[in-house]
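Colleagues,

Please find the record for the two-part complex below.
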Amino acid sequence: MTPAVSIAVADLSRRFAGPPDHLALDRLDLTVEEGEFLCLVGPSGSGKTTLLRILAGLDRGFTGKLTLPPGLRSAIVFQEPRLMPWLTVLDNLLLVAQAGDKAAESRARALLQEVDIADFAEAYPGQLSGGMQRRAALARALLVAPELMLLDEPFVSLDMPTAGHLRQLVTRLWRGRRMTSIFVTHDLREAMALATRILFLTRSPGRAALDWRPDLPPPGERGAAEIEAAVTALHRRHPRLLEGEAGS
Amino acid sequence: MAIAPGGPPSGTPPPAGGHLWLRMASFILLLLVWEGAALILGRSVLPGPAEVAAAMLRAARSGELFFNLGMTLYRVAVAFILAMALGAGLGILMGRSALADRLLDAWLIIALNLPALVVMVLCYVWFGLNDVAAILAVAVNKIPLVATIMREEARRLDRSLIEVGQAFRLSRGRIFLSIYLPQLYPGLFASARSGLALIWKLVLVVELLGRPNGVGFEIRTLFNYFDIAGILAYSIAFIAIVLAIEWVVLIPLERRITAWRRR
């Protein structure tokens, strides 16, 4: 099947007016294929979040070309859960539903079941742990049945076991739906566990340093040892990759 | 007030009914102190609770009490709605737009410092001795106070929550009603509660200055006869109404809307 949903940026730049002026993205080209799980990896200031915000429609101050299929349903999970503290978890999900969507509530409850917080539907976000708030934010994003799922370092402030569980959840949700996903992280191990493709960005201003497809089993079937070996191998070939430099 | 998940509860009213007997005791003590003061000062200077109750009953029987309370309440209601709507609109505009803030800031400071009495007299001179002038004068006194509170609230809006609405492509109206407005509720309630207290006091003054009815007018008439029991009777009747609005409408509404803070 030829990809009908093609997401592409060409010659994309984003400059933030200073002082001092700051070029966050510098003539970036990227085509995202339908159904892939793309991780954006790069040092701080490499423009990962800026790119995600442009794709989400939150930043329109860029130059260059952005191609999104018309009527594309996209959803985002931010770095902080960003749930409305005055709404229950269920109402937080329903907030993003189409007005007049009568089936929204049953879909929302099913999603809360799927992310394992069904018992907290009537609770307020302030009563939830950080991990459960992330689960709610994931469920909210899934409520719009996204064709494009954007995730901006969603597990960065969580403890390791909780983040690990949530990564497995993200993989499970992606495998069940195959929505095109773009996941921003600075953690190579996280990217290696989740991604079908990893785009490494250079230090500011952000350009593509390396576009890489891990030679691993599909996400969810990768063992910890395989992930570790792939990380080590990549480090050996590109020792300064996480600082934004490809090549040895 | 900051709205943060799991933040400390702030500005929430204490639980109602919890200390009912304490409130009752406090009320009875107030009556006793009043009666004692009446005994010491003499009943012609300060009538006791019984005389005031009798005066209230007399005014109620003649129907004058309810007519005047009704007129005052009507002016309070219109001035209150006008001041809240215009003040909130102005404050939100100034909080969100730097241009509007710069343009209107000097006006706001002038309006805040205009003596209430000057506004009232000028309104009567310009618009005549009628209800439009009276209500306008009261509203104009309250609008800058509401605008000041709401400007601060609007400045403190959490942009990151509004971005959620934008990222999920909610309509502008939905974002305003479901994400914008709930963040402004604390300021709206603070304005409403302090507003009610200020507005009814101002309404009595405009009535005293230039209306032929209402509690303020009645107090001036009673003052001419040195009828202190009557003055106290009217004051207490109106305070009771304002407290009833506060307890029956404003506090329960606030408790419902801020329920999430207490969980």
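Chain B has one domain: 58-262.

Comments are welcome before we finalize the supplementary table.
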